[in-house]
Write a structure and sequence with these properties.
The chain is α+β, with helices and mostly antiparallel strands. Helices cover 33% and strands 23% of the residues. Strand 1 and strand 2 form a beta hairpin.
């Protein structure tokens, strides 16, 4: 598998959602989704799950 690195440099992380796709030490794919919200923990989890499903669909293409 060819490795690609995309680095976005910004002084402060102001993104509501960030998605990181990488490989673990066993060369298995790993997806990390971070959600920043002013709402409740439940809101953050719901948003993260929604973004996970969207990323999963994108990766199927």
């Amino acid at each position: 598998m060819e490795k690609q690195v995309l680095e976005i440099i910004k002084e402060k992380d102001t993104y509501k959602i960030s998605v990181e796709i990488s490989e673990n030490s066993k060369q298995e794919p790993s997806i990390t989704i971070k959600v920043h919200t002013d709402g409740s923990t439940k809101d953050a989890v719901d948003e993260a799950l929604e973004q996970y499903r969207r990323a999963k669909e994108e990766l199927k293409k």
